[in-house]
Write a structure and sequence with these properties.
Elements lengths: L3 H91 L6 H77 L1
């Protein structure tokens, strides 16, 4: 049977060990809190940068489409003013309506419009994909949080069960020794 002095020494060692563990884990928790607070302080900068990026993308897409449409308008006007009277004169003599320069110009203008619309739609789709990815990441992080809480709870329950089993086994051994 262990003497009172040995039991006191065991209890003192357990207490010191528990203090070291608690101190280490508390310091780790403090470090995590500092890192989390730092990330929170930086979050507005990231949000601002993202918002600026998105606004810049939208404005750039608009400018690209506007510039493209204006340049095509000039091309069409130049082409019409220089060539249409001459070609129509020839066309009226030899070709049917479907080969009309006006018709070709209208078709070209429609193609230009479709390209501009497609560019805007592609930008919108890219933004939707990016937002979907962000939503997926948000959901993933929530699941990770929930799962880590559950794993921590299971781990703590396992440790308590192990502690109780070890304590019961130790008590049984001591009872047999007595």
């Amino acid at each position: 049977m262990a003497s009172k002095r040995e039991k006191d020494r065991e209890n003192e060692i357990k207490r010191e060990f528990t203090e070291v563990i608690d101190t280490t884990l508390d310091e780790t928790k403090s470090s995590v809190n500092k890192a989390t607070n730092e990330a929170r302080r930086e979050a507005p900068q990231f949000k601002k940068a993202f918002d600026e990026y998105q606004e810049e993308t939208i404005e750039a897409t608009k400018d690209i489409a506007d510039n493209y449409l204006e340049s095509q308008k000039e091309v069409i006007h130049s082409w019409q003013s220089a060539w249409i009277p001459y070609i129509e004169n020839i066309q009226n003599s030899y070709w049917s309506y479907w080969m009309s320069p006006r018709r070709a110009t209208e078709n070209y203008a429609r193609a230009v419009s479709n390209i501009a619309d497609s560019t805007i739609a592609a930008t919108r789709l890219a933004n939707n994909v990016m937002f979907a990815g962000m939503e997926a990441w948000k959901t993933t992080m929530q699941h990770a949080r929930d799962n880590s809480i559950e794993f921590s709870r299971l781990n703590a329950n396992f440790a308590k069960t192990f502690e109780n089993t070890a304590r019961d086994s130790l008590r049984d051994i001591r009872d047999r020794e007595d």
